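Troubleshooting: if your tokenizer reports a length mismatch, compare your output against this known-good record of 553 residues.
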Amino acid sequence: MNILFIMYDQLRFDYLSCAGHPHLHTPNFDRVAHKGVRFTNAYIQSPICGPSRMSTYTGRYPSSHGAQWNGYPIRVGEHTLGDHLRKAGMDCWLLGKTHMKADYGGMKRLGIDPESPIGARQAECGFDVWVRDDGLWGEGPDGSYDAKPSPYNAYLKSKGYSSENPWASHANAGVDDGEMASGWMFKNADKPANIREEDSETPWLTDRTIEFIDQAKGPWCAHVSYIKPHWPYIVPAPYHDMYGPNHVPAATRHAIEREDAHPVYAAFMDNSIAAAFQDDEVRKKVIPAYMGLIKQCDDHLGRVLDHLDETGQMDDTMIVLTSDHGDYLGDHWLGEKDLFHDASAKVPLIIYDPRSDADATRGTTCDALVESIDLAPTFVEAAGGEIADHILEGRSLSPWLHGQTPEWREFVISEYDYCLTPMCAALDVSDRDARLFMVFDGRFKLIHSEGGFRPMLFDLKDDPDEFHDLAKSDAYGEHIARLYDFLGRWGRRMSQRVTRSADDLSKMRGSSKRKGILPFLVDGSEVPPELTAKYRGPAKQIYIKPNEDDADV
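Known-good structure output:
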């Protein structure tokens, strides 16, 4: 079986028709959901691109792998999806974005050549690369955001786009009275991008995906990682005006959220991103563009699904659709991501498993508490490998796909290190204290803030919109204590004993005795005779001096 693992960037869990969106029709996402299982309680391990993706690729929490912000290197030697799958006999390829930063310092210290096969995989998060494009080719006074060459820009230049940076001037900009109308400015979100639709980012990566599938020899895992619908919020025709202000829902926000707000939450509500999305005129332009980007993603997903059908590969390819985090879009007085409301921390997750064992669950939903770190062990199991559960902190989802009801986790965890944000300075907290933790048990969601702040608490059964912070009063101390107990249990997990599995430990236990290490014996009768056999019998040569006057014997 092959695995087609598709990740969209910043795709909200509820912006699909199969998830109940009232206006956005996504027949191809729905098509996969009809063939598989849609998980309705899937949470990422950090609401930021880089750490979220590193958790998905390692199957480990951010505090385990250490890459807790965009641009933090994932340390050399960290086991990733590619390492686990290759051990199981499956190739693992990247097409698109990872947002990872290589630990070149660690590679240099260990004498690993970045150009060697091992070094190349270390530099690419364990993947073999078909094409990598992280998709943010910004330029400013201090140079480029991403110093690597852009394969997408090279493609656009080959198609006749003459700009030095056509990603910025064409794929992510419109035209206004002959002038460039950059997608960085929200006022331009309703304009069509100045590019042929077939040359824009989503179809470009879809073309590369179909090329990969046509030449691939299985078994393979292809991680197809789209940059969209991540900002800049601008999309080519005809998608730019498929939706309008009449399709923009009222923001999910309430004045009570701003009353006696938690200091960290208040700082985020006061930042420039939030301020922009608190303007309803901005939302009326941005959200239709966001919807158009998703519609474009759905159409090109259909191209891939059709190709699998036409080439007879649908029946032996697992398909996984998910995202690295959501997008507030003005909900809760916020924009972008960062915090732990469902608009940010909950993601779509749809899995089609072609195996006959999954026939009973086709077209169903599953409300089990799922974490993004569960994907890596799911893939290893699908590849026929042994799940290294001393390394992988997630759990295989195969039982749920196959109609079983396994004993499962009681809570999910997400983490956020915000020390590089302006909010850290605004709150005057130390770098070490600028950390947040979410624990959610399926009903109650607790957010813990380091630095001496009180917690936040939401009851998603009685308050599904997450408006009322119950921790403002003392009435919910029992629930707060219970969730803190969960957080403490998680904090005491065995996260760093990654060099020996449970089977290794079992084999090691007592093995030194069988290799002649027998300390603390009184007369030898405490152990089986075979263990002392090498230490019994006639003496060989005797060199003992009974006293100083005796010669050697």
